[in-house]
Design a protein that fits this description.
The complex is a heterodimer. Chain A is mainly alpha-helical. Chain A has one domain (2-12, 28-219): MetI-like fold, CATH 1.10.3720. Chain A is built from 9 helices and no strands. Chain A is elongated, with a radius of gyration of 21 Å. By secondary structure, chain B is of the alpha/beta class. Helices cover 32% and strands 22% of the residues of chain B. Chain B has a 6-stranded mixed sheet, with helices on both faces. In chain B, strands 2-1-4-5 form a 4-stranded antiparallel sheet, covered by helices on one side. In chain B, α13 (322-331) runs antiparallel to α14. Classes of the chains: A mainly alpha, B alpha/beta. The A-B interface holds A 120, 122-123, 125-133, 136, 140-141, 144-145, 147, 219-222, 226-229 and B 49, 51, 72-77, 80, 82-92, 99-100, 103, 131-136, 145, 148-149, 151. Chain B: Belongs to the ABC transporter superfamily. Chain B: Its EC number is 7.6.2.9. Chain B: Residues 2-237 form the ABC transporter domain. Chain B: Keywords: ATP-binding, Nucleotide-binding, Transport.
């Protein structure tokens, strides 16, 4: 208990010290770097995952390939990939982004695909039968109905990316990982715990953002608990 | 209106869903496609809006080969209702109904106004407009499905077993509503069902399919019951088609006789003198109260004091069919059916034997009696 309290005090001291809030080594700057890596990776991953997930879910072709690719990608160690790409391509943001994209694509791809494929065949039949084109079926029926799962995929990916973007610090780049990596090498645990706390808070914020998003953009008709009249 | 010319549908795995079908469906009527499962009735229906493309032959709509019309465009002009309604769960009831108008590019306001009209037309309260499909019962969802199909007021409506997923009471309700709607709208309707009773109840014409996608008979319900083309059809329409035919004879055509009818105010004596086992006791408006057994009448007093056996039910000469009359005879303690007018006053009575004369009359007037295949004994059909 004393341990926990003293650690909390450490974090508190670290967070409130004024040097954390100014300059290149401060939290705002590191947070911005972190968010840039995470945001870019998530954007690319969403482009890839959504495109293929929607395409394969809609046409029903290539379902096996999607599952295989996604499982394969899950098996790749993020850290290993960063090291590999840095070795091959030199020190830049690219390897970090590639690694994070590879991490984020599978949950987005799988959930989007499952969401679209899971649309009730009767509903899809009705959509075609009332005269929707393939594109209209996708945009007006399949996507809105798959939205809860698509958002789930994006949320899982976003949280993983935000948490894992700390690896960017290993090859000497910025982001919140700097606090942790630097703290570890200097045996400065105040720095490690403080940095970790910021990462955890950021992940929680992402979670909250997606929960709010779900409430606003998912149709109330898709909520399971809708009351019977 | 809708024409099939030598249409077949074969699948690569060798099954034949529809085999060389030629059929012409009249404008403004309900054609029911009926048959056992795997007979190709749904495939036939789905070839009309190009949800299934035939492997051979031509389907035409108002003289135009439907392959010449872009499929989504064709479908927007044809109402489509399916078994589980297939509503869009993420859209409100109003927006579900507005689907086709919105696809056709109507303004949102105009489409919603049209949808509100349709909601009322199918008998749903306006406050349902803002609900979502999962808040409605199966029967209500099916009504919304019909409303959605009527969205752009299409001349043709395709209905694929629309009422088979709801319970019998709701089904009867939906069928009655459907008949009422059709009287108002005069659409050309193609209706698929596996239920011959539903087919006879709703169809102006019935196409009976047999397994393997062959058309077995295309006829009016009356003719189908009176003169099935072969043993398969006879078996499919069922052993009781003789009784079912009575559905097509108006009760007004039933021969009635005056019978032993006495008012409740009458003294017992004249009733005791009647040469029949039962007398029908009526009130001062000649509305039937019940049957009194002559043998059990009291010695004196009026018929109001006599113990009355319940009527079973009466039949109305204005709305009912001869089938209702026969049922009334079978349920009556006196074995006499009681025919009443619109006010419920007794017109006359008839027993089951007397009632059976109407089918003989129908045979002479309408259908040629011919050789009634399978009229006796099992015909080896589906049932």
């Amino acid at each position: 208990m004393n341990d926990l309290l003293s650690q909390l005090r450490l974090v508190g001291d670290w967070l409130t010290s004024s040097k954390q809030w100014h300059g290149d080594e401060g939290i705002p700057h590191r947070l911005l770097e972190h968010l840039t890596y995470s945001g870019l990776s998530l954007l690319f991953a969403a482009l890839i995952g959504l495109t293929f997930g929607l395409l394969v879910g809609h046409t029903g072709r290539g379902a096996f390939a999607v599952a295989s690719v996604a499982n394969l990608a899950r098996a790749i160690p993020t850290f290993g990939l960063v090291v590999l790409v840095v070795t091959l391509a030199g020190l830049s943001t690219t390897p970090v982004l590639i690694a994070l994209v590879a991490l984020a694509v599978p949950p987005i791809l799988i959930n989007t695909f499952e969401g679209v494929r899971g649309v009730d065949p009767d509903t899809r039949d009705a959509a075609r039968g009332v005269g929707m084109t393939g594109w209209e079926v996708l945009v007006r029926v399949e996507v809105p109905m798959a939205l809860p799962l698509i958002l789930l995929g994006l949320r899982v990916a976003a949280i993983q990316v935000v948490a894992t973007a700390t690896v960017a610090a290993y090859p000497g780049l910025g982001g919140l990982g700097r606090f942790i990596v630097d703290g570890l090498s200097r045996n400065d645990y105040e720095l490690v715990i403080g940095g970790s706390t910021v990462v955890v808070v950021l992940a929680l914020v992402v979670q909250i953002v997606f929960t709010a998003l779900r409430r606003f953009i998912v149709s109330p008709g898709l909520r399971v608990s809708a009351a019977k009249p | 209106m809708i024409r099939f010319d030598a249409v077949s549908k074969n699948y690569p795995n060798g099954t034949t869903a529809v085999d060389d079908l030629s059929l012409e469906l009249a404008e403004g009527g309900i054609t029911v496609l009926v048959g056992p499962s795997g007979c190709g009735k749904t495939t036939t229906l789905r070839m009309i809006n190009r949800m299934v493309e035939p492997t051979a032959g031509t389907v035409s709509l108002r003289g135009q080969d439907i392959r010449e019309i872009h499929a989504p465009e064709l479908r927007r002009g044809i109402g489509y209702v399916i078994q589980h309604a297939g509503l869009f769960p993420h859209r409100t009831i109003l927006d579900n109904i507005a689907t086709v108008p919105l696809l056709l590019g109507w303004s949102r306001k105009k489409a919603r106004a049209r949808a509100a009209e349709l909601l009322e037309l199918v008998g749903l309260p306006a406050e349902m407009a803002k609900r979502y499909p999962n808040q409605l019962s199966g029967g209500q969802q099916q009504r919304v499905g019909v409303a959605r199909a009527l969205g752009a007021d299409p001349p043709v409506l395709l209905m694929d077993e629309p009422f088979s997923a709801v319970d019998p009471i709701v089904r009867a309700e939906l069928q009655a509503e459907f008949i009422r709607l059709q009287k108002e709208l005069h659409k050309t309707i193609v209706f698929v069902t596996h239920d011959i009773d539903e087919a006879i109840k709703l169809g102006d014409n019935i196409a009976v399919f047999r397994t393997g996608g062959k058309l077995a008979q295309f006829d009016t319900p009356e003719r189908l019951l009176a003169d099935p083309a072969d043993e398969f059809v006879a078996g499919f329409v069922g052993q009781d088609r003789g009784i079912r035919r009575l559905s097509f004879v108006k009760a007004a055509d039933v021969p009635l006789r005056d019978g032993p009818v006495l008012p409740a105010t009458s003294p017992v004596a004249p009733a005791r003198a009647v040469d029949e086992p039962w007398v029908l006791v009526v009130d001062d408006g000649r509305r039937p109260l019940g049957w009194a057994a002559v043998a059990e009448l009291p010695e004196s007093g009026t018929l109001a004091d006599a113990p009355l056996a319940p009527l079973g039910h009466t039949f109305s000469l204005v709305g009912d069919s001869a089938r209702a009359a026969l049922d009334s005879a079978l349920l009556s303690p006196s074995r006499l059916a009681v025919g009443v007018d619109a006010e419920g006053a007794v017109i006359g009575v008839a027993d089951a034997y007397e009632l059976s004369a109407v089918t003989a009359a129908a045979d002479v007037a309408g259908a040629p009696a011919g050789d009634e295949v399978g009229a006796e004994g099992p015909a080896g059909g589906e049932r």
